[in-house]
Amino acid sequence: NKELDNPYEETMSGWFETATSFLDDLTQIIAPVVETPLEDFKTHWRAIKDFYSDGDYEVEAFQSMEIPEHLVSMITILLEEEREENKELDNPKFHECLEFFIQNRIMEILCELAIINKPKGVRKLILTQVNALLSYMPHSLLHNMSVHGPILKLVKELSATIDVENMEFVALLCSIVRLLKREPVLLSFFIEETELGDGKKVSEFLLFSSLLQHMKDPGGAGDAAKDGVLLILQIDDPIIFDYILNHTSFGSRVVADLCQYYKALPICKTSSTKSDQFTAYLIQLKLCNEILLNALPEIQIQLLRELEEEFFDAILGPSLLQPNEEIARSMTMYLRDSLPSFTAPTFLRQLIVLLLGEFEQVENEDDQSSHYLRYTLISRIHSDDTAVISS
Q1: What residues are paired with 130 via a beta bridge?
Q2: Distance (Å, whole) CA 293 – CA 312
Q3: What single-letter DSSP state applies at residue 383?
Q4: N or C: more exposed end of the chain, with fewer CB within 10 A?
């Protein structure tokens, strides 16, 4: 009987092994092994490294290997992991994907790739994703040397680059400024000593000088640069304050642009002042107004002095006194339509003093012609030209 039992046992054992293997395969199909976020992150990073290790940088390969998708997925994984893991922690900490990102100096590599911009266009992608990482991370990454060091180098390199993706670069600069305003202790990472022509050294705040270069960019980039500059002007830091006030031509530059836009205003052929030139002038006028509302007092005083000397006294006043009626009418209409932009008390007072003079007591009849501009403007009310009266 024992001999007869063996074939049966062997058959059953073989069948059992086959069934077990089949069930294992079926389990893999129905419920495949899910990679951890770190494994997934490493897979995306490996794909990017494989592409750049060849050194070809061909656009076709860049797209076919789905490099943009891999980079976006990496940033998404980092943000999702940190949000989820730090949700209930009072003191947020780095988790495994971000630790891998820091330890392998991935920010440094990404910034270098953005600088070389190969294949052409990858810089725009990297700037956008680095901006997203810094902006949406639940805690600051700029404390880490392997993050703020490469970003500072990126800012320096792109500030000296003519062909740069303005909108994406300015957006990144503004995001960094917002982070620094929130945590002023990080400011020192972006202040560098530079040597002037006379051998003297000055502490330069690179973010400010970089944003200044883009304030006149068309469209959204220029608007964003102005917003970034206004944020910096509110940072109460002695080094930055000294740099802006004594080592940049910020105030005179803003006023010079205002004067340039004003001089470009066309003669009004109708009662309307609508034109691209007037829009540009209004934008610059509103920038001056915002600075006088929000900047540190010393910066406001410097700008007011520049405005009085270079704009009000040298340009605006004389333009309203033009003997040519057509020009005088146009300039008066522009003044009328720009009045709502003078909301800062010091700015409005400066305009009133220009137009009406300073009154310390009630004016008598003999004083009425002592302020020639005021006298001229009032006399136009009695003009036969209806356009002059309406202005």
Answers
A1: none
A2: 19
A3: -
A4: N
Q: What is the DSSP letter of 381?
A: G
Nearest CA to 133 among 74, 91, 48, 65?
74
CA distance linking residue 50 with residue 42, whole number of Å:
12
- The residues, any chain, with a CB within 8 Å of residue 315's CB and separated by 6 or more, are 259, 262, 263
User: Which two tokens mark 81?
Assistant: 């992991």
Residue 68: is the preceding peptide bond cis (ω within 30°)? no
pLDDT range class, residue 199, cuts 50, 70, 90: confident
User: Which residue is it, tokens 């000294």?
Assistant: 242
**CA dist list (Å): 372 to 153, 229, 334, 339, 387:** 56, 38, 20, 21, 21
Per-residue pLDDT at 280: 93
C-alpha 193/C-alpha 200 separation (Å) is 10
Burial of 240 (0-12, 13-18, 19+ CB in 10 A): buried
Structure tokens at 24: 């294992």
Closest by alpha carbon to 165, among 133, 224, 121? 121
Q: How far apart are CA 195 and CA 210, in angstroms?
A: 17
Instruction: Work out the pLDDT band at 9, boundaries 50, 70, 90.
Output: low
Q: Which two tokens stand for residue 135?
A: 């902006």
Residue 295 Rama label (left phi>0; alpha psi -120 to 50; beta): beta
For 181-194, what is each residue's pLDDT tens digit?
A: 999 999 999 999 88
3-state secondary structure of 204: strand
